[in-house]
Amino acid sequence: MESIAAAIFLEEDGNTSENADAKVERRRLRDMCDPFQMSDELFKKNFRLNKDAFKYVLDTFAEETQQSTLTSLSPLNRVVAALRFFAEGSYQRGVGTDYNVGMGQSTVSKSLSHFLEVMQRKLCPEWIKFDQSEEEKIQAKQEFYAKASFPGVIMCVDGTHIKIVKPSEEGFLYYNRKGFYSINAMVVCDNRMRIKSIDARYPGCNHDSHVWGLSKLRSHMERRYREGERNAWLLGDAGYPLQPWLMTPYRSVSQGSPQSNYNMRHSTTRNIVERTIGVLKNRFRCLLGARELHYSPHKVSQIINVACALHNICIYYKVGDLNANEFNFESRQEEEEEEQSSDPDYTSIANRIRDNILATF
Questions:
Q1: How far apart are CA 114 and CA 70, in angstroms?
Q2: Do residues 95 and 81 lie in contact, with contact meaning Cβ atoms separated by under 8 Å?
Q3: Residues 170/182, Cβ–Cβ less than 8 Å
């Protein structure tokens, strides 16, 4: 396929006539673009979705783009550009030079912003839902129990840092204890690796427990507990507070002790949320630490939210995981979490629940 890099680079380096020629060339390449002619495997490699999932996203986006100011771009052009960005995490200029895209940097920027606004409004409420039916809860408990005989688990929670450039305002708030600027995103997944809740609002300086404490999910779980729900909880690591609806590991345990056995089973069961985050970042490489998103915190939050919705769409449409030999996973840095105090209103109840679980092993 012909290269268009030379034509694209004329936008900034050439004269007015050459820029006009570059724009004509880009439009010609966009008009020629038909990604559905790709093989299924190449299509998935380029867009991280299969063709059925892509068509669903395209149809959803097209319904909302009738009044767009980007009149020269079809919905297909804009979805192609956005998904190439999500897939590779390249700079907007690099996305524009892609033979499937053929856009200038400013056009890619406007197109991506429009895509994010529409998808966050349309896809996220539809595809990221915490609620479970009673049947789904029973199934989740059974599948989690099958991993390590840990009872009552319906979901797992963890935080992950999404690397960003230093924001122009209050940048110090985004500098995390790992030594870079980030958004600390709280991810909750179920037994099928579907993301059931995402909270990507808080700067990287915030600890996982702080994000959890301010989340709507924490309030939702407490309300369900007060309304009488029992024997259903999330699993979180030691960075989270022990609560009747959130089971965490014991601290400072002796090897071979019952508490150590509990922690082993807890870790084995909870591992699914770490794998979910790994699959999410591997599929949508714009979230990988090596990419460092060059956007405002608000826009980064939109990118994270939409990526999570797309992740769930991939599961629904049975898009297989990417070839681990071809795409690098971001290794999760294991580190000792700061011990979190239990919720003072529920300390004795939560400890009793955890001890009762330990007694079943």
A1: 9
A2: yes
A3: no
Render each residue's pLDDT in the chain as its tens digit; 361 residues.
333 333 333 334 445 554 554 454 445 455 556 899 999 999 999 999 999 999 999 999 998 876 555 566 889 999 999 999 999 876 544 444 454 555 667 788 889 999 999 999 999 999 999 999 999 999 999 999 999 999 999 999 999 999 999 999 999 999 999 999 999 999 999 999 999 999 999 999 999 999 999 999 999 999 999 999 999 999 999 999 999 999 999 999 999 999 999 999 999 999 999 999 999 999 999 999 888 999 999 999 999 999 999 999 999 999 987 654 444 445 454 444 555 555 677 889 999 999 999 999 9
Query: How far apart, in Å, are the Cα atoms of 330 and each of 38, 128, 161?
Result: 28, 24, 12
Look at the block and give the residue holding tokens 């971001």.
330
Taking the alpha carbons at both ends of the chain, their separation in whole angstroms is 61
Q: What's the pTM? A: 0.86
Distance CA 22, CA 119 (A): 30
Domain ranges of the chain: 5-122, 131-359
Q: 316-332 in b/e burial notation, b at 16+ Cβ within 10 A?
A: ebebeebeeeeeeebee
The side-by-side arrangement of strands in the sheet containing 182-189 is 195-203, 182-189, 153-163, 233-235, 246-247
